[in-house]
Amino acid sequence: xGVNRTLDRGMVYEGSGPHPxxxxxxxxxxxxxxxxxxxxxxxxxxxxxxxxxxxxLFKAREINDTKIRKDAIAHLKKLAYEKIDFKHKARRxxxxxxxxxxxxxxxx
Length: 108
Fold this sequence. Notes:
- The protein has about 110 residues and is mostly helical.
- The chain has one domain.
- About 60% of the residues lie in helices and about 0% in strands.
- The chain contains six helices and no strands.
- Helix 1 packs parallel to helix 4, helix 4 crosses helix 5 and helix 4 runs parallel beside helix 6.
- The chain is globular.
């Protein structure tokens, strides 16, 4: 998924602040589009990539949509303990989400 590579760019951003492209992605309805890919995909790599993208995008931000928050975090937790390529990205996504005080202690 090309979006994942774009969002990876924000991970070189130093510090624990939010993803630098968050406002841009939100302004074009990108969060819902990424979640739709996550929800509808039958391809495991595509679904995994979408979940990681959500985690990267919401670095240090609250996910207000309960469905997105619940489903994406559950999937990232599952990926974090599997022996697949996405394990490290999933763990990083969970760490980024944990930067938001709302999630502290409640993710991992």
